[in-house]
Amino acid sequence: MPARTVIAVVALIAANPAIAADTPSVREGTAAYGSWRDDAPGARRRLRANDLPDVAAQQATVGASPSQRAKRGDRVPSVPAGFAVELVAEGLDEPRTLRVAPNGDVFLAETGGGRVLVYRPGADGKLPAQPAVFAKDLREVYGIAFFPPGPDPTAVYVSQPDRVLRFAYRNGDTVASAAPSIVVKDIPGGGHSTRDLAAPDAKRLLVAVGSASNVAKGMPRRSTEDIAAFERTRLRGAAWGDEDRRAAVWTIAPDGSDARLYATGLRNCAGMAVQPATKAAWCVVNERDGLGNDLPFEYATRVRAGGFYGWPWYYIGAHADPRWPGERADLKDEVIVPDVLIQAHSAPLGIAFYEGPMFPADYRGDAFVTLRGSWNRVPRTGYKVVRLRFANGAPTGEYVDFMTGFVVDDMHAWGRPTGVAVARDGSLLVSEDQGGTLWRVTATRN
Known about the structure:
Blueprint lengths: L16 H4 L5 E3 L15 E3 L8 H4 L9 E2 L13 E7 L5 E6 L5 E5 L4 E5 L12 E4 L8 E4 L7 E6 L2 E6 L12 E4 L12 E2 L6 E5 L14 H8 L16 E5 L7 E5 L4 E6 L6 E5 L12 E5 L11 E2 L3 E2 L19 E3 L5 E6 L13 E5 L12 E8 L2 E10 L8 E2 L3 E6 L5 E5 L4 E7 L3
Parallel strand pairs: 1-2, 3-27
Antiparallel strand pairs: 2-26, 4-30, 5-6, 6-7, 7-8, 9-10, 10-11, 11-12, 13-14, 14-15, 15-16, 17-18, 18-19, 19-22, 20-21, 23-24, 24-25, 25-26, 28-29, 29-30
């Protein structure tokens, strides 16, 4: 792997008028749509289910956005005035999920390199360019969860597309002390490969398993009687055939036993987090393609036990997918409308709640979400980090651009944000897997 270089670059954005505005108005409805050209730290958006465009009119806008890699050069992301951003490391091979251990060590899933890396912050909070290698030879490693949650975990769970591994762990371990045990080994492979993990409590873990396809067109039709019998063995709204046990969140015991569905209809829950104030599990979900530039919205949502979120028959509540005409009308009134709707084809990948001491007080309780960007929109959107606003522990539905500037022009982007975590000192850590970089955002005033 190429050597890492630590480059500290302060990006103060006060000169940008889009950032300098005191209180930008919230863009709502179609005004919330846009592309990378409309993005800037501080831009505010709110979408509601009734803002969804008509599906028949949208289908004419289906298209692919050219995605060619650009070299980063000396480019750095843009952040709001009062914040600074520094490059921690580059040359990483698809860095994705970030998790912070109770002792402050930063764990990173290097998906392309098949490694779990550990960065130990210095006394000043800065991360070293050269990490320790906690584990290697882990094909498409992705999810990371410390267990039990709290100050003294005894294990760290790591996921691959077809399995979940358990490593023995003590605070401060930077190299695995022994080979892992396989606690789950029968996760369906193929299709979406992201398998994030979360531990809301000390009794069970959650495992996200994305769909095998876009909209389950290969899933055979079943009779009402067959569906009823099938759901008695799974969960209401569960998919079958090639999609069996997919587009769902599982719950498992710590030893991997008693694996069962926890929630269904989540096409690809690519990232999970536990909200500190409520202990609720949250997902950020990549919705389906092929319906148009602005359909359907992506989303972040609390994951309810037994909940059904629509895929493949419905999206964002009772909006029927025209590729499943007349199917599963019995589910129409049971589809949960997600908590925070995000512009279509933004491709959310990571989520982290902010409870740190560094940022201004009104950031506490909010969440950050990375938007990797999708091929299925012209012009492109996503390619940024946004802040989800909360009030008294409840989502307001508003999200705000926080970290932008990864796109060069309509044809080229140099970075695609993936992982996000809050370091123990309160700084924000962001990985991006196209340029293979890791960034740290600090507040210069609070």
